[in-house]
Write a structure and sequence with these properties.
Radius of gyration: 14 Å
Number of strands: 0
Order of helices and strands: HHHHHH
Distance between the termini: 23 Å
C-alpha cells in the first residue's frame, strides 16, 4: 500500500497518498515509512508544509538514527528552495548510513 501512495504522489495525487498513509498509521501507529510518505505527500499540498514537518518530526522522535528520515527532510527542504538546510540533512543521513553500516543501529 505504501508503494501505491508513493506512486500517487508522483502522479500528482498527494491527497490520496495522505489517505493511504493515514490508514496505515491507524493500523500501525508509528510506522516510519508511512510517516515519511505522509510527509512527502503533505509537502506537495498547498498550505500543508507544517503537517509535512510534523510528520517528519514524529518520525525523527521514533527513529532518530534512521537515515531515511533525514533524506526525506532534505528532499522537502530542497523543494522549498532551502538548499543549505537540505545539504545539512543529507550530510546527517550519510553519516548515519556510515555509522549504521559499521555496527550502529537505525533505532
Amino acid at each position: 500500500r505504501l508503494a501505491d501512495a508513493a506512486a500517487l504522489i508522483t502522479q500528482g495525487k498527494p491527497e490520496q497518498a495522505v489517505a493511504i498513509a493515514d490508514g496505515i498509521l491507524r493500523a500501525a501507529s508509528g510506522c516510519i515509512p508511512a510517516l515519511l510518505t505522509m510527509a512527502k505527500a503533505f509537502a506537495k499540498l498547498p498550505g500543508r508544509m507544517k503537517d509535512a514537518d510534523a510528520a517528519c518530526e514524529q518520525a525523527m522522535k521514533l527513529a532518530p538514527r534512521d537515515p531515511a528520515v533525514y533524506r526525506t527532510l532534505a528532499d522537502i527542504r530542497e523543494a522549498q528552495g532551502k538548499r543549505a538546510q537540505a545539504l545539512g540533512f543529507r550530510s546527517t543521513a550519510s553519516e548515519l548510513e556510515r555509522t549504521n553500516r559499521s555496527g550502529g543501529r537505525n533505532y
